[in-house]
Design brief:
The chain is an alpha/beta fold. 47% of the residues lie in helices and 14% in strands. Adenosine-5'-triphosphate binds next to helix 4 and helix 6.
Length: 765
């Protein structure tokens, strides 16, 4: 190492140490304040609220400071004039302000040239320096000189920034968890990350173009830039499945952001974790907008009338409830246009009104032919009696019951007759796809249906108020109990004392006591949002968005009426039959033409050799689609091996062993047709006990066997695709599935097949 290089290392290490000292100082300060707050107690309700807010603030600050411990500072910009700027995961101000700022947050506008400056357009930057660190120790420096006039050779490529650091990141072993890319964000990605908050932005990009990475960094950017607004309303990131959410789960915490709700569609109905699996064809039927009519009919079918009449016992007499009375009441309630549970009150009022007239007719008829003898007050009393009569209530409940979304959907999907009545617009084959067992669990495609039903059913305010009143009564009863104990202990301790002693009982009544002890809601917006179906998010980010059905989009749009959304996906990778192959189709109904399309064109994951194979598959999906350009080659040719059918499991195991040895610390993914998953999974597990297989495989294992659908959005150092012709044949979107499968590799790709290779893989023959 030249002496100037080692001088550089030494002085940068010294600066790094200053930064960590400052971080430690701030951490100690926050820790100390938090400790003091935790020790404080009592005070007024406002005081306590304030303390709670401060506690949350310092806890979050500490979490943020802990999160940035690794890679605190990763870059430096030198300018033609002025002092250099250091770029990091967090902004740090100096203790003495003349040295400010010590470190600039990567999201601050001043950091932008770090991602955008090039030799051709340096924006005043003369040098961009990447600092490589391990813990608190500087391990290396990569410099890019951007000032061509300074005489230094610019070298490197013009299409990437920070080439050395980028290539180091791209060729590193995969770990089963996605890493942040904050040190090497490329300019086309930076544009997306820093776009404004409002409106719908669709980011279309081929595999490996960094859509997921960009979506996550955009969440961090938006939270930094619009902190107040978004902390209150929350940001939702919707991903395709729980395995994928675990894969990306570390990225935002490593960027010191934790207040984001990561969820799958299956999590979007509070109280339901929809994890059951169903055929894609069934999900496709559930995803169509035709289900709106089916659901509306299913609710209407619950508003029934008897064949002729119903009879109940009222006040010792049989009371006939005529079909026509119920029909009129039902028509009036339906005409109100209110949701079913809300309109119920009107149905009951109308029915009771008609029944009271019927009773008046019976008992108030003037034998002399004059007006009815019952006064208005008598009629009101009759109505009151009818309303309070449990038998009448029960009968009316039967004709217009209070319903929950789960009840309506379960009853519908488990009953061929109900389905036939409500889903008359579907074909018999489609209805057969919908029919399921009563004890089958909820699937993700059920969730938008439950959400739609919640809208159709509504919540009866009187019921809600009754429930709130019940809860409050319980709390007051409890408080009275507490106060009684206090009173009891006073009489024991102080009854023989002369002077008056003020007890809690004298200064507070039970209701007020409850109010004072109401628990403060200290949950983050993300936590509160997860528990509330009607929560409206400040921003919604959707990953693998091409897979969502029209019904799922309705649910999402309800959660985001401001339409502040970032939608990332690739219409060439759609595997769900309910998914989309054009973005226009998705957004036209909600925002017309008012959405922005941005395209990412560079593939950071898949090396050129693998992408050449993928390009042939893509051409078969749609010749008009362009594959993204690989940023690097791996120097390894993809391979294919034909094996006898009986030897397939043994050959898979052998290939896994070879690839695991090649991958070293890296990860191996075996992607198989759905029909073979169970058998091959079992065989692999027998030979490689640590392998991850099954519904939700643990990606931290070195070897993972899964279907292509499960592998959506994931990547492995080495990928073995098994029986590609079966993957193609398994679904009408089988070619897209094969495209997804081959583009999961970051280094090596192999194909095992027992029949002829499909034509689209001819380059491997
Ligand atoms: N600027 C970057 N610097 C370093 N690594 C990057 C960069 N951009 C993307 N990557 C890496 O490339 C890989 C692919 O990124 P990502 O998964 O976000 O792509 P994607 O477009 O979502 O792919 P797919 O459509 O196949 O799911 C990841 O390992 C990611 O970390």
């Amino acid at each position: 190492m030249s002496s100037s290089a080692s001088d550089d290392l030494r002085s940068e290490q010294a600066y790094l140490t200053t930064l960590y000292d400052r971080l430690d100082g701030l951490r100690a300060q926050a820790d100390d304040r938090l400790r003091r707050i935790v020790l404080e107690s009592g005070g007024t309700p406002q005081g306590r609220t304030q303390r709670e807010a401060q506690r949350a603030h310092y806890t979050e600050q500490l979490a943020q400071m802990n999160a940035v411990e690794n890679g605190l500072c990763f870059g430096r910009l030198d300018f033609a004039d002025g002092a250099p700027l250091y770029i990091g995961r967090l902004g740090l101000s100096a203790e003495q302000h003349d040295r400010d700022p010590l470190l600039i947050d990567w999201r601050a506008p001043a950091s932008r040239p770090f991602y955008l400056a090039t030799a051709v357009s340096p924006d005043g930057v003369t040098r961009r320096r990447h600092l490589r660190t391990k813990g608190r120790v500087l391990t290396g420096i990569d410099d890019e000189v951007l000032d061509l006039t300074a005489g230094a050779a610019a070298g490197g490529r013009e299409d990437v920034t920070g080439e050395a650091a980028l290539l180091a990141a791209l060729t590193a072993n995969r770990t089963g968890r996605m890493r942040d890319i904050v040190e090497t964000i490329q300019s086309e990605q930076d544009e997306v990350i820093r776009a404004g908050l409002s409106g719908v932005m669709v980011v279309q990009g081929g595999p490996g173009t960094g859509k997921t990475a960009v979506a996550l960094h955009r969440a961090a950017y938006l939270l930094y830039t619009y902190r107040q607004q978004l902390t209150k309303q929350g940001v939702l990131i919707l991903g395709p499945n729980p395995t994928f959410l675990r894969y990306i789960s570390q990225v935002l915490p490593s960027l010191a952001e934790t207040g984001v709700l990561l969820a799958t569609l299956g999590d979007m109905f509070p109280g339901v974790r929809a994890r059951a699996v169903e055929p894609s064809a069934a999900a496709a039927v559930k995803g169509r907008l035709a289900m709106l009519d089916v659901l509306a009919a299913a609710v209407a079918d619950r508003q029934t009338v008897p064949h002729d009449f119903a009879e109940v016992d009222h006040d010792g007499y049989p009371l006939r409830i005529e079909r026509s009375v119920l029909e009129d009441a039902r028509a009036a309630a339906r005409r109100s246009g209110r949701p079913h549970n809300v309109a119920r009150a009107m149905f009951v009022t109308e029915a009771i009104h008609a029944l009271s007239l019927q009773i008046a007719e019976r008992i108030g008829t003037d034998p002399l032919g004059g007006d009815n003898l019952l006064s208005e007050a008598d009629l009101a009393e009759t109505r009151r009696e009818l309303r309070e009569d449990v038998d009448v209530q029960r009968a009316l409940f039967e004709f217009w019951p209070v319903l929950t979304p789960r009840q309506v959907l379960r009853d519908l999907l488990c009953d061929a007759d109900r389905l036939e009545s409500a889903a008359a617009g579907l074909t018999a084959a489609e209805r057969a796809l919908l029919l399921r067992d009563r004890d089958a669990g909820w699937t993700p495609a059920d969730v938008p249906l439950l959400d739609e039903l919640a809208e159709l059913l509504g919540v009866d305010d009187t019921l809600r108020a009754r429930e709130a009143a019940r809860q409050r009564r319980e709390a007051v009863d409890y408080a009275e109990g507490v106060l009684e104990i206090l009173a009891g202990s006073r009489s024991l301790d102080f009854e023989d004392q002369e002077e008056e002693i003020l007890s809690a009982l004298d200064v507070v009544e039970a209701g007020a006591f409850v109010e004072r002890h109401e628990v403060l809601d200290t949950r983050t917006a993300a936590e509160r949002a997860a528990a509330d179906r009607t929560w409206v998010f400040g921003h919604v980010i959707v990953d693998e968005a091409q897979e969502l059905s029209p019904m799922a989009w309705r649910l999402l749009m309800r959660r985001c009426p401001s339409r502040s959304m970032t939608v990332v996906g690739d219409v060439a990778q759609t595997s769900e039959l309910a998914g989309t192959t054009t973005w226009e189709q998705v957004f036209e109904p909600y925002v017309g033409q008012r959405w922005n399309l941005v395209e990412l064109t560079v593939n950071y994951r898949t090396p050129a050799e693998v992408m050449a194979v993928a390009a042939d598959v893509l051409a078969a999906v749609d010749p008009a689609l362009e594959p993204p350009r690989s940023v690097r080659s791996a120097g390894v040719a993809p391979w294919a091996l034909r094996v006898p059918p009986v030897a397939l499991p043994a050959e898979v195991i052998a290939a896994v062993r070879v690839e695991a040895a090649e991958a070293g610390e890296g990860r191996v993914g075996v992607l198989v047709p759905e029909a073979r998953e169970a058998d091959l999974g079992r065989a692999l597990l027998g030979a490689v006990p640590g392998a991850a297989v099954g519904e939700q495989p643990d990606l931290l294992n070195q070897v993972v066997l899964m279907t292509v659908r499960q592998a959506k959005g994931l990547e492995f150092d080495s990928v073995i695709v098994v029986e590609p012709d079966e993957i193609i044949a398994e679904s009408p979107r089988g070619l897209s599935d094969l495209y997804v499968a081959v583009t999961r590799a970051t280094r090596r790709l192999g194909v095992l097949h027992t029949a002829d290779l499909p034509k689209v893989l001819h380059s491997l023959a």
